[in-house]
From TrEMBL:
It is found in: Cytoplasm. A motif ('KMSKS' region) lies at residues 197-201. L-tryptophan binds at D137. Belongs to the class-I aminoacyl-tRNA synthetase family. The keyword Coiled coil does not apply. It catalyses: tRNA(Trp) + L-tryptophan + ATP = L-tryptophyl-tRNA(Trp) + AMP + diphosphate + H(+). Its main location: cytoplasm. InterPro entries: aa-tRNA-synth_I_CS, aa-tRNA-synth_Ic, Rossmann-like_a/b/a_fold, Trp-tRNA-ligase, Trp-tRNA-ligase_bac-type, Trp-tRNA_synthetase. It comes from the Bacteria. Homodimer. This is Tryptophan--tRNA ligase. HAMAP family: Trp_tRNA_synth_B.
Amino acid sequence: MTRIFSGVKPTGHLTLGNYLGAVRQWVAADQAPEDALFCVVDLHALTIEHDPARVRRLSREAATLLLAAGLSPEKCTLFVQSHVDEHTRLAYLLECTATDGELRRMIQYKEKAAAAQAAGAGVRLSLLTYPVLMAADILAYDTDEVPVGEDQRQHVELTRDLAVRFNQRYGPTFAVPKVTLPAVAARVMDLQDPTSKMGKSGDAGAGVVFMLDEPGVVRKKVMRAVTDSGDGGVVYDRAARPGVANLLDVLGACTGADPVVLAEGYGGYGALKRDVADAVVELLRPVRERHAELAADPGAVEKVLRAGAERARGLARPVVDRAYRAIGLLER
Ligand code: AQP
């Protein structure tokens, strides 16, 4: 059976980008006969300036939203990263496998380090090493597939490199996972700045649709989306017309239609935006409603997370022990 692992970090409220790029794929995998593990990767949220109470609140909200989106605790394992010590145990061995140079080449590191410096904050060392902890998250479970959005592709490729390097140096230890991306909307862009990714942290404003936004708020954000100048009508051209291409991608992801074909059906931006707003509102409505029900019973969500951590620990421990032996550490 294929083993799937992926995670979401509680650095903000989950966005439409998280949903279309990742969470929806996870729910689909959860319906199939796969062995899937999904994780709220809270340790990763500590790599940038953070408010402890907010991280705690967002971790709970993320777990509740994943259940509301359709992950079923009977089929998959849902847990919180910091509840399973094996992740940090393994991360150290992988830090002894990765190089400083390859971590400094990570695009997210460069972007987030620059943002931290611009804000006058120090760059936390964990921001540099975070892709190694992410590799540990994945490799601790003999993972076959990692469904993520495009922005995480580079980190999964690093994970593969580290697994291969470790196996070559110390003998076969880790499964080498492959990345899976959604066909459409692998990178949902900010509605106000369609050359930047729609992101949950930072000063998320009018360009970010959150999964829990009220329908009226979603409509307003979509109707105010920046489109492109030029009178070439509605065409799908990511390079020249990124704002319109982004709206078409979102509509394509919501409806299952090809964004290029969708473009042919519109004479102007107004009708396109109305259809996008309707589609997004309808897509998120059941998730929002279910979230409200689940949020009313936080004890039930905590129970799911406790059981998930227990199972995850049982899976990860033998893999991490195997890695400790292989790298030359004495048995306890
Ligand atoms: N805009 C996006 N389009 C498609 N997929 C996306 N993902 C994130 N943003 C988009 C995917 O969602 C999953 C969980 O993301 P994460 O929590 O690991 O955070 P991230 O990748 O760093 O992106 P965010 O949500 O914008 O967070 P911040 O602002 O903290 O960096 C991943 O599979 C990701 O690819």
